[in-house]
Write a structure and sequence with these properties.
Elements (H helix, E strand, L loop, with lengths): L1 E5 L2 E3 L5 E8 L8 E6 L6 E6 L6 E3 L7 E6 L4 E6 L8 E7 L4 E2 L3 E5 L2
Parallel strand pairs: 2-11
Antiparallel strand pairs: 1-3, 3-8, 4-5, 4-9, 5-6, 7-8, 9-10, 9-11
Length: about 110
């Protein structure tokens, strides 16, 4: 099982980023997928989760209305569209495959002026 995140970077407050997580080594469409994040000095927290078929989605209260999780099972990829970014969104973002409890290496998002 391999998960590789990409798309992180430096963005100004109010800006947008789209994270991607490319999966391999398992039947991607069989697993719910999640995005977590971990800010410096804080515990890892759940940001968003999407069901295996993409029809069920849930978000942390802190990102509702700003972030959108989606997946393309044909491309074995899950996405996190992040809009209206805030300084407090700064963190390393991780992709997680529930069925295998597998994690990616993370991608750093820095929101700063």
């Amino acid at each position: 099982v391999q998960l590789v995140e990409s798309g992180g970077g430096l963005v100004q407050p109010g800006g947008s980023l789209r994270l991607s997580c490319a999966a391999s080594g398992f039947t991607f469409s069989s697993s719910a997928m999640s995005w977590y994040r971990q800010a410096p000095g804080k515990e890892r927290e759940l940001v968003a989760i999407i069901g295996s078929a993409g029809g069920s989605k849930n978000y942390a209260d802190s990102v509702k209305g700003r972030f959108t999780v989606s997946r393309d099972n044909a491309k074995n990829t899950v996405y996190l569209q992040m809009n209206s970014l805030k300084v407090e969104d700064t963190a390393v973002y991780y992709c997680h495959a529930h069925l295998f409890n597998a994690w990616g290496q993370g991608t750093l998002v820095t929101v700063s002026s």
